[in-house]
Amino acid sequence: MKQVITLNINGDCYELAVHPWRTLNEVLREDLKLTGTKLGCGTGDCGACTVLIDGKSVSSCLTLAVEAVDRRITTIEGMAPNSEELHPIQESFIEKGAIQCGYCTPGMIMSSAYLLKQNPQPTEKEIRAGLSGNLCRCTGYNKIVDAIKDAADKMNQH
Ligand code: FES
Ligand code: FES
């Protein structure tokens, strides 16, 4: 039986009826058309589906929508402060050429946001460890690491 739930996503409240077994990823993408959050493996291995819940990065493919009730969900659509500006991490990903295939990028950005919140000045090793749950199978991680270093510098100046 469906359950009526309210989800707080990027500061907006969405009321919807969902089966209790549906994942947050399915509800975001299929019901709410917030397709910036990707679905890769569906088993918690690739990080493409990463969102923030109460500021912490989680795999939305492993989280039930009903578990996210009464919590603060942030998706890639909610990263930019407004329609004119990007988040510094998004800017740095563009400037450093770190947006490679586009498929893994939203998850990488969400994990980066969590990493920089925990550790505003991470070393390269810490950045690589922070991104260890986000897989890129094509061009590698160097530009992504450069982008996160750059974003950290920008964010520390504010
Ligand atoms: S789709 Fe969730 S970790 Fe791969
Ligand atoms: S999987 Fe996205 S750039 Fe490699």
The strands making up the biggest β-sheet line up spatially as: 2-1-5-3-4
Helix content: 25-40%
In terms of quaternary structure, the protein is single chain
Described by the principal axes of the CA atoms, the overall outline is globular
Round the Cα radius of gyration to an integer and report it. 15 Å
Let me know the average pLDDT.
96
> What percentage of the residues does DSSP assign to strands (E)?
15-25%
Measured distance between first and last alpha carbons: 49 Å
Low-confidence stretches: none
Instruction: Give me the secondary-structure category.
Output: alpha+beta
Please work out how many helical segments DSSP would assign.
Answer: 5
How many strands appear in the DSSP assignment?
A: 5
* Hetero compounds: FE2/S2 (inorganic) cluster
Q: What is the H/E string?
A: EEHEEEHHHH
Main beta sheet: 5 strands, mixed
Describe the secondary structure blueprint for this structure.
Blueprint: E1 3-9, E2 12-18, H1 24-31, E3 50-53, E4 56-59, E5 72-74, H2 88-95, H3 105-118, H4 124-130, H5 142-157
Parallel strand pairs: 1-5
Antiparallel strand pairs: 1-2, 3-4, 3-5
Helix pairs in contact: 2-5
The structure holds FE2/S2 (inorganic) cluster (2 copies).
